[in-house]
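ok here's Phenylalanyl-tRNA synthetase beta subunit, seq below lol
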Amino acid sequence: MVAVFLLGGVLGTGFGVALGFLAFPYVFPPPAAMDQLTEADAETLVATGTFIHANPADPIHFGSGGVEVYESVVFLQNDFKVGPGPDFHVYLVPSAEVRASGDVKDMMFVDLGKLRAFEGSQRYEIPAGVNLKDYPSVVIWCQQFGVLISPADLAFES
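and the structure came out like this:
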């Protein structure tokens, strides 16, 4: 009887901790970001886009808001927002019209870094030598689970 009680306590504690880790970003999201572009960043606008809800049947993985790509910076605009989750990253992807996780998994993407906030303006440095014309999409990707959160198709300036 004691063994059953202890096993139940261990399993219950493990389940509670796991649930807490998954629910934490939803219950206590970080504050909105408020990054600004510098004059040097904003000299040459290369492309613009809008994050979309790629799969409307999925209520958890969504995004919205604008993105601007400059020669050395990707800038998520003030209206940027994604549903919270763990280990989100900003990727430049060499494929247009990304709509599913499988569209990204085997790509040679450029990881610009971990998403700092689930909403608000944010800037991400583009590594030197990246030919932006080869990357027609910016996506928010969950590295922990290998899931597409939100893509943005880029329209290049002429």
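fwiw The first strand starts at residue 33 and ends at 34. kinda neat tbh
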